[in-house]
Amino acid sequence: MKCKFWGTRGSITVPGKDTTIYGGNTTCLEITLDSGRKIILDAGTGIRVLGENLLAKKEKVDVTLLLTHIHWDHVLGFLFFKPIFEPTAKISIDGFPTCMKGLTSIFATKRGDGFFPVKFEELKARIQYLDILRHGPMDVDGVVIDTVLLQHPQGGFGFRFREGKKTLVFITDNELTEDAWDGRHPDDYAAFCKDVDILIHDAQFLPEEIVKCRGWGHSDYRATLELARKAHVKKLILFHHDPSRTDDELASLEKMCQDLASRHDSQVDVSIAREGAHFSL
Ligand SMILES: [Zn+2]
Ligand SMILES: [Zn+2]
Question: Which ligand does the CA of 242 lie closest to?
Fold first, then answer.
């Protein structure tokens, strides 16, 4: 399995000189299975560049798009994902149960609400809703995909991919808190992430910031590190960076988290998600 980050930012796109290293686009990841099949995670603004990249290969686009939830920063890039205008493209969609509602309502409605000039029905690609994940795990070319419910306003799904002996978990927009809803306690997430090779998890806030942002559905790096330690995760990648966090601040944060992990004698290898970065497992 290979994974590439096309968007690592939370909440809103932040172009500019302070975000050239870690990136300014919102959530989008590309997973390439050993079979060659591509799975896209979320349709934040990062999906626009991914779409151009797919079309440049001059191959028929046939992808699975999984949505964690339908907040703007996770769906808005779909409007500019060029394969949707290609008659030969096939896009199979699944994820949180409201995923189709999210993807269709960002286009113009029948009443012509004036938000976007194109209606969902006018898209040329073959777009189908698989409707599997809300009932249970999904199998894509032998890779098992499981979900976990998120502690996040209006809900969401985290995903675990198991390909042979390798495991990758992607959990964004999740608040690790002792004061959690049923089944969404940090211990539940530790069970879901137990012994995984790579965990990509929300760490939008600093511990001193989260005091004012309780209930917003995001975690601070300390809680995220603790989850990785408890779950014996091998590699942790911090994700969904706060829009106001600069490259310099993220670089210091990365160093601080690495020191913190080694001080706690944890074996977790910590890094910060960077737009354009890729890895294999
Ligand atoms: Zn978000
Ligand atoms: Zn969200």
Answer: 1
Q: Which residues pair with 92 in a beta bridge?
A: 64, 128
pLDDT of residue 112: 66
Question: Which CATH number characterizes residue 177's domain?
Answer: 3.60.15.10
**Backbone dihedral angles phi then psi of residue 91, each to the nearest 5 degrees:** -125, 115
SS3 211: helix
Q: What are all long-range contacts of 140-145, with beta carbons under 8 Å and residues at least 24 apart?
A: 140/33, 140/37, 140/39, 140/64, 141/33, 141/34, 141/35, 141/37, 142/35, 143/1, 143/33, 145/66
Residue 216: domain span:
2-280
pTM, whole model, 2 decimals?
0.97
Domain count, the chain: 1
CA 188 / ligand 2 centre spacing (Å): 20
Q: What is the mean pLDDT of the chain?
A: 96
Q: What pLDDT score does 9 carry?
A: 98
**Average pLDDT of the segment spanning 99-104:** 96
At 113, the pLDDT band (50, 70, 90 cuts) reads: confident
Distance 58 CA to ligand 1 centre (A): 31
